[in-house]
Q: What sequence folds into this?
């Protein structure tokens, strides 16, 4: 039990042949340490191979969920480093029919013909879908162990099991069932949920509801919880609200050295084949050339540069500190263009909140007062 919540070993029911395989070395070591009450962290014990085990968990988890709550309207799965804005999630689910066959989240691809819902971004399945599959076939949770041995990911294995039964992930923007940007994209590309500082804020999602975040630290989760408490439960939290809290105060339009803002929509590098028709092919020559390339692309919101590389983006992301010596990125943002996106959005009046870069302005003002 953790905080009154029962914790189970979801792999305990796997077949003996599977548990005896090399991919279960980590699991067997964990069981041995547990039996000894070793009181030691996995990293201290030198245990690795978590990904080899992870891919076996998804089908047994859904099977267990169904067996425990066979009449549930919805089944929602998340990772330990995922955060869900539950009021947003429940408001959305109350607007769609749990009797429809729905398998939803951020869709990515194992191959062009094998879409699957990315587990870390959150997986939502309707009760009707789970009852039609796991309910009608009680052994389904253990049927794909051999398949899992030869494939990368448990969320893909789950999708494969659904696909074998005629069900595929929902690819939906604003049409029913309104998945849209709630999982940060993935309705037609490779996008997955990110922490607030790495979210891809754009004119397309600025006024859309957001539901999940992924790849979070314990501190990220704490800050998201504090952020969520600022809003009434019936208030739909939008991308722009997350941007205001976690990104907007920290943007700068001057050069920010040792910083990677993750700009990657257009990339230019000296180790790639040059395109003579592209006037920006030399953008990687200098910070100034990269800045000019961003200025010339009217949709460019930010850029990053390091010797031999220039990345531009029509999205806004904060990113993080980047310490790699001479290979470190320098970054900058076009604050005037970002504000224009906000003005045109219809949901984010610029004069209603402090402007971009408020954190650094406050620092400068405080420093002046101390002199």
A:
């Amino acid at each position: 039990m953790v905080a009154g919540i029962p914790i189970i070993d979801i792999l305990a029911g796997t077949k003996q042949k599977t548990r005896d395989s090399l991919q279960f070395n980590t699991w067997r070591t964990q069981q041995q340490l547990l039996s000894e009450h070793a009181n030691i962290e996995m990293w201290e014990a030198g245990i690795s191979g978590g990904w080899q085990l992870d891919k076996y968990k998804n089908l047994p988890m859904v099977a267990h969920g169904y067996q425990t709550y066979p009449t549930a309207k919805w089944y929602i799965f998340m990772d330990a480093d995922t955060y869900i804005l539950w009021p947003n999630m429940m408001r959305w689910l109350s607007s769609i029919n749990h009797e429809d066959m729905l398998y939803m989240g951020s869709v990515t691809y194992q191959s062009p013909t094998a879409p699957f819902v990315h587990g870390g971004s959150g997986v939502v399945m309707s009760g009707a879908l789970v009852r039609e599959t796991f309910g009608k076939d009680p052994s389904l949770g253990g049927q794909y162990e051999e398949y899992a041995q030869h494939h990368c990911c448990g969320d893909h294995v789950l999708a494969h099991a659904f696909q074998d039964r005629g069900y595929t992930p929902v690819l939906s923007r604003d049409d029913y069932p309104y998945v849209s940007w709630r999982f940060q994209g993935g309705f037609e590309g490779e996008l997955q949920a990110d922490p607030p500082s790495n979210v891809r804020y754009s004119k397309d999602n600025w006024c859309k509801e957001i539901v999940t975040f992924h790849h979070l630290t314990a501190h990220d989760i704490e800050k998201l919880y504090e952020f969520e408490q600022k809003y009434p439960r019936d208030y739909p939290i939008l991308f722009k609200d997350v941007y205001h809290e976690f990104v907007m105060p920290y943007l700068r339009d001057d050069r920010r050295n040792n910083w990677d803002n993750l700009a990657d929509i257009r990339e230019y590098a000296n180790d790639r084949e040059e395109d003579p028709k592209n006037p920006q092919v030399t953008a990687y020559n200098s910070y100034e050339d990269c800045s000019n390339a961003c200025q010339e692309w009217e949709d460019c919101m930010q850029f990053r540069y390091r010797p031999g590389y220039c990345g531009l983006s029509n999205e806004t992301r904060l990113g993080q500190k980047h310490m790699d010596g001479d290979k470190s990125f320098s970054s900058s943002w076009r604050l005037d263009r970002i504000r224009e996106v906000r003005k045109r959005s219809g949901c984010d009046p610029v004069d209603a909140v402090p402007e971009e870069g408020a954190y650094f302005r406050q620092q400068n003002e405080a420093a002046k007062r101390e002199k």
